[in-house]
Amino acid sequence: MNITLTPIRFLERALTVFPRRTAVVCGGQRWSYAQFGQRVERLSDALVGLGIKPGDRVAFLGYNCHRLLECYFGVPQIGAVLLPLNIRLSPEDLEYIFQDAQPAALLVHPNLVDKVASFVENSSAAGRVFLLEEDENAPAWCGATYDELLEQSAPRPPAEPFTFPFEEDDPAELFYTSGTTGPPKGVLLTHRNLYLHALTAMASMPIYETDVQLHLIPLFHVNGWGVPHYLVGKGGCHVMQKQFDAEGVLRLVQEESVTRFYIVPTMLTAILELPNLGEYDLSSLRDVLIGGAPAPTGMFPRAEEALDCTVHGGFGMSETCPLIALPELPPDLDQETLRHRCHETWGFPLCGVTFKVSGPQGEALPWDGESVGELLVRGDMVMKGYLNKPEDTAESMEGGWYHTGDLVAMGEDGSLYIKDRLKEIIISGGENISSLEIEKVLYSHPDILECAVIGKKDDRWGEVPKAVVMLKPGASLTAKDIVDFTRDNMAHFKALREAEVVQDLPRGGTGKILKQQIKKLYG
User: Fold this and answer.
1) Stretch 245-268: mean pLDDT
2) Are residues 101 and 174 in contact, defined by beta-carbon separation less than 8 angstroms?
3) By percentage, how much of the chain surpasses pLDDT 90?
4) Least confident interval from 47-51, 67-71, 243-247, 332-336
5) Phi then psi for 366, rounded to 5 degrees?
């Protein structure tokens, strides 16, 4: 028997098995799975009534909220493609995406209308732009609100089980890369990709129907969007935080008995720096996953002590749905192995995922923990391709492997060690220098809050390592102090040549530090 593989089946299960269980908590409101499912069906009915057809793209430009979670199921179950947009993109980037993806409708938060005002009236979404919340000052080209759309529609009659208006290899979601190294590229993820990714995540992580997951990372971001499918499939509860607020995180963990959340290092730094961290009851917290960027040296043990739970890494990317590596953490694991897996590695390839470490000539490098090459990936969750970019797709999939652009080493036990991005390696006087290695040294300094190391152009050496650094409040390090610290703690040819102290660093939608922008500003 072959049944279409689609994440919509996870919602079908939740509605059958867990109808009365709390599905979503958002801004003080709560919905059971039965209520959540009814809203999803109303959304689907509304989109069909607007003339949205299979294959059409529906764009969402807004903050984390229950409406975006509803779109994860209400849009693809009618065969349309969900396009969540990064709220930090410039109007120019958004216009490029609209021209590339040609969305048939747009759901937009009133605070973000100005980002699309210059082009949306002449775009493919014209006449089907709807506000996610009421705003009496909204321009005339905005139609009804999202909730009015749902009120005017009706729950669709139940379809035959496992009957869908699409094939499993059809796109279900479309995400655009950040565009820091060129125009954004649209990553097409199919129903099959997303279904098998969710099953793999369930098999690799201890996820239960009693789990309460706090969504800190926006669901338009690589470290956020895999969760809706597998948590719904297990009947867990989603707690939405509109925008990241460090103390608000602790409040929600305490009030909602949150058991797990995913976070990027800059967010976790903000939480760990709170002077009243110890005043909150965080005893429900069981699992924290750090991803999106390498964690500073010492962050894992510091976070475990402060939060009193397991803190570990995970690895993935837009093109892989996203997770492809996690540490295996059985309950009887000895403490030394647990610390090694959680603090020193990025985990092991998930079930159904195959890794290859590729050398300069495309040769397979040994898994000895020392040989560094580009990580190549095969797996069921690797994307269909880039929208409208057949040449980029063919290049990234050369030889039947997805070429990640990450420099890694693999341990003999199959553990993954990220060394750097290919595009961020600093080549100075013919030597390859890892920016991540220098950053780890810098983060060991007690006065450094955040930093980024880039290659600065140099007439003699080609490039030299330069650090752009934010200090902790009250610290008074000079640029020379910072350079000297690296020279005292690593090989001189790898050490910094320059440093610059700044008040803030360019960031993406999750607070992730954007190195390519730093390179433009300081390189």
Assistant:
1) 95
2) yes
3) 75
4) 332-336
5) -70, 155
Find tokens 């994307």 and name the residue.
383
- pTM passes above 0.85: yes
List 61's β-bridge partners, or say none: 108
pLDDT at 180 over 50: no
Q: Kind and range of the H or E element at 41?
A: helix 33-49
Please check whether residue 229 is in contact with residue 268, taking contact to mean a CB–CB distance below 8 angstroms.
no
Of the candidates 269, 518, 294, which has an alpha carbon nearest to the alpha carbon of residue 420?
294
Cβ burial of 361 (10 Å; 0-12, 13-18, 19+) is exposed
C-alpha distances in Å from residue 211, one per residue of 65, 66, 96, 267, 470: 19, 17, 39, 22, 36
Extract the tokens encoding 397: 């999939």
Residue 185 contacts residue 395 (beta carbons within 8 Å): no
Residue 182, pLDDT score: 61
DSSP SS3 for 370:
coil
- In the block, which residue shows the tokens 């600093």? 426
Assigned token pair, 462: 């080609």
CB 91 within 8 A of CB 29: no
The dihedral built from the CA positions of residue 196, 200, 244 and 44, taken in this order, carries a sign that is positive
Note whether 129 and 108 are within 8 A (CB).
yes
Judged against a pLDDT cut of 50, whether residue 24 lies above it is answered with yes
CA distance 419 to 238: 33
d(CA 259, CA 254): 10
Give the span between the Cα atoms of 90 and 313, in whole angstroms: 30
Residue 173 dihedral angles phi and psi, to the nearest 5°: -140, 150
Q: Which of 234-238, 450-454, 455-459 has the lowest mean pLDDT?
A: 455-459
159, pLDDT greater than 80:
no
Position 491, amino acid: A
Instruction: List the structure tokens of 510.
Output: 């999750």
Q: How does the average pLDDT of the chain come out, rounded?
A: 92
Buried b (16+ CB within 10 A) or exposed e, 329-354: beeeeeeeebebbbbebbbbbbebbe
Instruction: Give the residue with greater pLDDT, 179 vs 142.
Output: 142
Q: What is the 3-state secondary structure (H, E, C) of 140-204?
A: CCCCCEHHHHHHHCCCCCCCCCCCCCCCCCCEEEEEECCCCCCCCCEEEEEHHHHHHHHHHHHHH
